[in-house]
Design a protein that fits this description.
250 residues; alpha/beta; Rossmann fold; seven-stranded parallel β-sheet; globular; binds NADP nicotinamide-adenine-dinucleotide phosphate
Length: 250
Amino acid sequence: MNIAGARILLTGGGAGIGRFLVERLIADGAEVAVLELDELKCGALREAFNGQVKAWVCDVSNAQAVDDVLEAIFAAGFEPNALVNNAGLIHSEPLVNVLSKSERVHSRDSWRTVLAANLDSVFFVTSRVVDRMLAKRTKGVVLSISSISAQGNAGQSAYSAAKAGVNALTMTWAKELGAMGIRFAAIAPGFIDTPSTRAALSEAAITRLKQQIPVRRLGDLESVYQAVKYAIENDYINGTVLDVNGGLVI
Ligand code: NAP
């Protein structure tokens, strides 16, 4: 599929990786619609791209909100032939915190919230979008931003489980829908230099991390975009998880 002229729906486009992907996809000639939690970020997107980006407020972890917004988007005439499931919530918490004086085990609330933001969201949005593509006999591609944490990252039970689930859904749907002309791929970044990474890690932790990454640096946003572009444009990519991690093994 050519990016120029593609109609791409992207979740979580208001910040970080998603915001950068919107910018590059537009520059390469795609038509882009965004689902984003925050109204202010939706407004900022519309303004930054002079109305070229359609931005819709939606909590993609909420099934009803997803159904409602997608109905409105289709009714408004936007028929996606590509979906990028990017919205996510990075969360670190040990399974058991032996130093805690109160509850020692991983919060059940945060388990649910993290699974909802990273995994339920992919299921809710993809199922509706793919149903629409099939109804419209549209061939297309669905990409999901996974993570190196899907391999199992100490201190990230919920996030690792959610991203491993995203990889499993990608492979399952690739087998289920390939014959109908809809392809699936996951992109699994390592540590990308984003405000969310900088907020989660101290400068000292980033310095230590760089020593463990074979290419000795955090990933850049353009590398993630290049993987997204490749997976959209190469029509024989299906059921694959593309690692973008500088060779880091966790
Ligand atoms: P980010 O800066 O926090 O951006 C995520 C965006 O998604 C934000 O605009 C956020 O909105 C939105 N969002 C979150 N939950 C949402 C929901 N329920 N409904 C709608 N929008 C929602 O994160 P990022 O670092 O760019 O990460 C983007 C994706 O890459 C995530 O899936 C993440 O797991 C994955 N990833 C990131 C890295 C990295 O190094 N940064 C590495 C591997 C994988 P609000 O800000 O308003 O909450």
